Amino acid sequence: MKLVLPPRVNEKSFQKALDAFAGVVGKQWVLATDEDRDTFMDYYAAGDADQHVPSAAIGPQSVEEVQALVRIANEYKVPLWPISRGKNLGYGAAAPCMSGTVVLDLGRMNRILDVNERFGYCLIEPGVGFFDLFNYLQQDKIRLWMSIPANAWGSVVGNALERGYGYTPYGENTRNICGMEIVLPNGDLVRTGNGAMANSASWHLFKYGFGPSWDQLFCQSNFGICTKMGMWLMPEPEATLGLNIQLPNPDDVGWAVDELAPLRMRGVIEQSPSIGNSLRFVASRTQRSEWYTGDGALPDDVLMDILRKNNLGWWTINLRLYGYDEVNEAHARIVKEAFARHTKQEIEVVKWRCGDPIENSGAGVPATNALQIINWRGGRGGHLGFSPVLPASSEHVLRQFHSTKKRYEEIGVDYYGSFTLFERYTTNVNMMVYDRDDTALTARVRALFKVLVADAAKQGYSEYRTHLSYMDDVALTFDFNSHALLRLNETLKDALDPNGILAPGKQGIWPRALRTERA
Ligand code: ADP
């Protein structure tokens, strides 16, 4: 990709900034050729990769280097987009929101600084991948478990900052954050929570510190660069007990949510069960053309035939109980009774005890095979995730499911959705899978996305996370008192980042000088 300069910066001063960056990190870590820029584009983009073009990428190796780069960025008004490993697939990958932004790739800062088995936490740098931490814990036989998202290619820090989740009782990674180190947009360095006390004995034990609590202000925001993160890890349980069930009918998701949500809220189920349409299993193993080559979305009768041949229900539920064996058994009885009120479907039971191979345990074990779904349509695949949050009740879930499925059918995309149950809400991730070179299809997907945001907003459903191209759209759905929250965020942005150099546009938050760039 050819160079796109950031707003406010001419070619000469951009070159001077790159030279100054090279003075900090060395020439080899300033990546500014056309090919380099391609590497940091959104490689899953639905035909709009050219809206988010990085001008260069720089790779620091230490906190001091990050601080020096931030000071140079302020001097030349060159915007920076921090990434940890840049695998934010379906949400923009490594690319920045605003074209011309320089990607600050923190992947070289990948040390595991501390793991405390007794208190169940780690202290890590942004470049630590899920595989890195998992291998470290396994090799040293540390009996702490991680929570890992379906695709584990990315970093622990990036996932927690974006509020990604996994499926153990410690599933909400952002909730596990306990104390961070942050480089502010002016280059200053702070530690949050109890880390603000230089010799704190409890930086990664007590989340709140003294006074306002900042960890969540640095999540999904452009207020600072995280250079260290403390994170709670789950003590290995004595046993786990998995219950897997297939639900034959599309509307079964309604009663399943009504039965499971109260059990989730009362702690009978401590992790977040995922209720997903079974097409996801088929899409990760086969290609669409093996089943259907006609136009439009997969017809219902073709889908039913595929499910029958694969011995799958319309929905699949995987849930798991963790803890002491006898408690798991008692909880399993309660969950089974809940299902028995509605179905005679057989429930598959999977048991694991401490000492058995970890692969069958329900511990977070990193894998990347979930990514295979992008081959569903053939060609150079990609996916986009539309992820609203709804109350965990059948009324909301059924309404959202039917309206989303209808929208998918209108534009000819195969419905692919899941509902993950947290204590009080459910996150409804809807995937749109496409061949990136099918321009007609990707244009329809982009139009569908906007319609889904508007439909959801009408019902009072907001997204928990979104792709770069829709950050402004989603931010504007938070409209109480004429977008008072956006005003607050931007007041804070201008105070912390007067030159507007850190991740302009992220989450719809623009610095004063660049508000004309808002979509
Ligand atoms: P992953 O490491 O999972 O691949 P990314 O590096 O793509 O995740 O990060 C996802 C998003 O989170 C980025 O686009 C950026 O907005 C934000 N982010 C990631 N790492 C940091 C960080 N260390 N400090 C501040 N924001 C970050």
Characterization of the model:
The chain is built from 13 helices and 20 strands. The protein has 4 domains: 11-105, Uridine Diphospho-n-acetylenolpyruvylglucosamine Reductase, domain 2, CATH 3.30.43; 112-235, Uridine Diphospho-n-acetylenolpyruvylglucosamine Reductase, domain 3; 239-362 and 388-464, FAD-linked oxidases, C-terminal domain (Vanillyl-alcohol Oxidase, Chain A, domain 3), CATH 3.40.462.10; 472-517, Orthogonal Bundle (Vanillyl-alcohol Oxidase, Chain A, domain 4). 31% of the residues lie in helices and 19% in strands. The chain has helices at residues 11-25, 34-39, 63-76, 130-139, 156-161, 252-265, 279-285, 300-309, 325-340, 394-411, 439-459, 471-476, 480-496, and strands at residues 30-31, 56-58, 80-83, 102-105, 112-116, 121-124, 144-145, 177-183, 189-191, 225-232, 234-235, 239-247, 274-277, 315-323, 348-353, 381-386, 388-391, 417-421, 425-435, 462-463. Strands 12, 13, 14, 15, 16, 17, 18, 19 and 20 form a 9-stranded antiparallel beta sheet that branches. Strands 5-6-10-8-9 form a 5-stranded antiparallel beta sheet. A 4-stranded mixed beta sheet has the order 1-2-4-3. α6 crosses α10 (394-411) and α10 (394-411) packs antiparallel against α11. It is globular and about 70 Å long. The protein is α+β, with helices and mostly antiparallel strands. Residues 82-88, 94, 106, 126, 154-155, 157-159, 161-162, 225-226, 503, 506 line the site of adenosine-5'-diphosphate.
CATH topology of the largest domain: Vanillyl-alcohol Oxidase, Chain A, domain 3
Bound ligands? adenosine-5'-diphosphate
Task: Determine the structural class based on helices, strands and strand pairing.
Answer: alpha+beta
Helical coverage, percent range: 25-40%
The CATH superfamily of the largest domain is FAD-linked oxidases, C-terminal domain
Radius of gyration: 23 Å
| Largest sheet geometry | 9 strands, antiparallel
> What is the CA-CA span between the terminal residues?
22 Å
| CATH secondary-structure class of the largest domain | Alpha Beta
Portion in beta strands: 15-25%
